[in-house]
Amino acid sequence: MLTAHLPAGYVLARGLRAPDRRAMGAALLGSVVPDFDLIFFYLVDDRAFHHHRYWVHIPAFWAAVALVALPLLWRTVWRLPALFFFAAILLHLILDSLAGSIMWLAPFDDGLYALVTVPPTRSHWILSFMLHWTFIAELAIWGCALALFYRRSAR
Ligand SMILES: [Zn+2]
């Protein structure tokens, strides 16, 4: 997914009726935090390998973090934000699996799994993704997010 992670986090938070700004903020942060690896990808590793191979894009890593964090936060005011945060991360990984690829079976298998493979039909990979039918999903997410946002603003 190229552009729709943040609006997807917004749609998730609105859909799950985030009760306050803390939960909404956690959902928005969780919706983009796996892509923070792009900083390392471009500035440190010089694009040496697919950024979906970094630990922040590995579901087992986040499952382990959630397994530790959720019990610790359960009786605090951070329980709900933590749930929204991890739900948004899961949504990020699912959306990345549409036309990208995720190591769903790591650490048992290091294969990258995607529902659809976008062929390199254009001069740049971003153009290939934007002109592939799967980009409709991104546009639909943006449309939902904007509709929810303006409907809320109109009240
Ligand atoms: Zn990602």
Which SSEs are present, and which pair or pack?
Blueprint: H1 5-15, H2 21-32, H3 37-43, H4 59-73, H5 79-99, H6 125-130, H7 135-154
Bound molecules: zinc ion.
The site of zinc ion (ZN) has 5 residues, from helix 5.
Description:
This protein has 155 residues and is mainly α. It has one domain. It contains 7 helices and no strands. α1 packs across α7, α2 packs parallel to α5 (79-99) and α4 runs antiparallel to α5 (79-99). The longest helix is centred in the middle third of the chain and has 21 residues, at 79-99. The protein is globular. The model has no long low-confidence stretch (mean pLDDT 95). Residues 34-35, 57, 92, 96 line the site of zinc ion. Zinc ion (ZN) binds at residues 34-35, 57, 92, 96.
Give the % helix. 55-70%
Q: H/E series, N to C? A: HHHHHHH
Shape: globular
Return Rg in Å. 16 Å
Helix count equals 7
Small molecules bound in the structure, each named once: zinc ion
Distance between the termini: 31 Å
Major sheet summary line? none
What tags apply to this protein structure?
155 residues, globular, binds zinc ion, single chain, mainly alpha
Q: In a few lines, what is going on in this structure?
A:
The protein has 155 residues and is an all-alpha fold. It is built from seven helices and no strands.
